[in-house]
Amino acid sequence: MIFGKKSRNNRAYQRADFFQPSYFMVDSEINTSTSECWFNNISQGGLAFESEKDGLENAVVNILYKIGTQMRKDRLAVRFAKKLMTRWRYGCQFLDPDPQRNELIGRYVEQKQGR
Q: What local confidence, expressed as pLDDT, does residue 75 receive?
């Protein structure tokens, strides 16, 4: 068999595909310019996005997105980075607890899982 065993899902929260263009800023940068990104997936624990910007390993980002009818701006810690062909994929964890955000994302994930 060419491919290895399927890895076990040890995630604390279920995730769902979440494709949306958006913008983010790196928290520690003096130059507060925004960078474009594309979301890949989302869960109550965090989200993943792709960007042409490199070097975000262990960074904190402020990101803007819309879920349902709600606009959100959240702080996330980059937990992993993976180089794709011309972009980077970053997996991020929400830093600040927010029950309203958890409820919005929970409903979204349930809706997507039901399809």
A: 97
Does 70 fall in a domain?
yes
Best CA proximity match to 86, nearest among 39, 57, 49, 50: 50
Residues of the chain with pLDDT under 50: 1
2: tokens are 């060419």
Taking only Cα atoms into account, the Rg of the chain, rounded to an integer number of angstroms, comes to 15
* Domain range for 48: 15-113
Helices and strands counted in the chain (H then E) = 1, 6
Q: Please list the alpha-helical segments (H only) found in 1-115.
A: 99-113
What's the one-letter identity of residue 67? Answer: I
Q: Measured in Å, how far apart are the chain's first and last C-alpha atoms?
A: 31
pLDDT score for 6: 54
State the number of CA atoms in the 13 A half-sphere of 25 facing the CB. Answer: 12
- Is the pTM for the entire model greater than 0.90? no
